[in-house]
Amino acid sequence: MATEVKAAVFEVPALTYPYEALEPYIDAQTMHLHHDKHHQAYVDNANAAIAKAPELANKSAEEILANLSAIPEAVRGALRNNAGGHVNHSMFWAIMGPNAGGPPTGPVADAIKKTFGDFAQFQEKLNDAGVKQFGSGWTWLALGASGLQVLSTPNQDSPISQGLHPILGNDVWEHAYYLKYQNRRAEYLKAWWNVVNWAEVNKRYEAALKK
After folding, report:
1. 25-29 long-range CB contacts below 8 Å, 24 or more apart?
2. Could you tell me if residue 50 is inside a domain?
3. Helix (H, G, I), strand (E, B) or coil at 124
4. CA distance linking residue 114 with residue 197, whole number of Å
5. What's the rounded mean pLDDT across residues 4-33?
6. Domains in the chain: how many in total?
7. Are 133 and 154 spatial neighbours (Cβ–Cβ below 8 Å)?
8. For residue 204, is it within any domain?
9. Would you say residue 211 has pLDDT above 90?
């Protein structure tokens, strides 16, 4: 009797802070909808795609995104979008927190200063990439072979698929900000710095340096 292969099951990580903890910068209603509904939909759709390609059952979402060309064409688009959405959002919840914000600290602060001149110039560059991202997408700080770089990606595309390690990213899909900021994406981008958890960003940076 053949052994049944159980498809990998991705799960939405629980928030480590209350939904209202990021007020007044990100409202509780947005957090409920964004975390409980949007992220859950990405997870459900990614799991459905994996169920159609059980040979991928033992791969992490990051492994899938790192080599999309090796993913069966029948599920490649679904996993690019939905495994991407899962990975992007899992990072997003982790790099935010209450009583956070302010200038960066630790090794990532030194790397930002070395690469961009100072924190203000880095903020401007990341915000600008977010404002100019046409339609839905993300603005990122990622580590590559040449060091830190700022970029934006459309939809739920991940820097992982470009061979980069995302260190920090901000969601510029309308569902991330529209209830509070409506069409004022630039205002949201500026306010978001008040909730960045630099301790977590440093963990991601130090982990990326070891890869």
Report:
1. 25/191, 25/192, 25/194, 25/195, 26/96, 26/177, 26/180, 26/191, 26/192, 26/195, 27/179, 27/180, 29/179
2. yes
3. helix
4. 20
5. 88
6. 2
7. yes
8. yes
9. no
What are the φ/ψ torsions at residue 155 (nearest 5 degrees)?
A: 55, -130
Q: Is the pLDDT of residue 8 over 80?
A: no
Average pLDDT along the chain = 95
The pair of three-digit structure tokens given for residue 181, joined into one six-digit string:
């900021």
Per-residue pLDDT tens digits for 105-134: 999 999 999 999 999 999 999 999 999 999
Q: Are 85 and 156 in contact (CB under 8 A)?
A: yes
- The reply to whether the predicted model has a pTM over 0.85 is yes
Most distant CA atoms of the chain, gap in Å: 63
Domain span at residue 35 reads 27-94
Q: Which of 201, 195, 200, 199 is nearest to 102 (CA)?
A: 195
Say how far apart CA 32 and CA 54 lie, in whole Å. Answer: 32
Residues 111 and 81 in one domain: no
Provide the percentage of residues in the chain whose pLDDT is more than 90.
94
Q: What is the DSSP letter of 210?
A: T
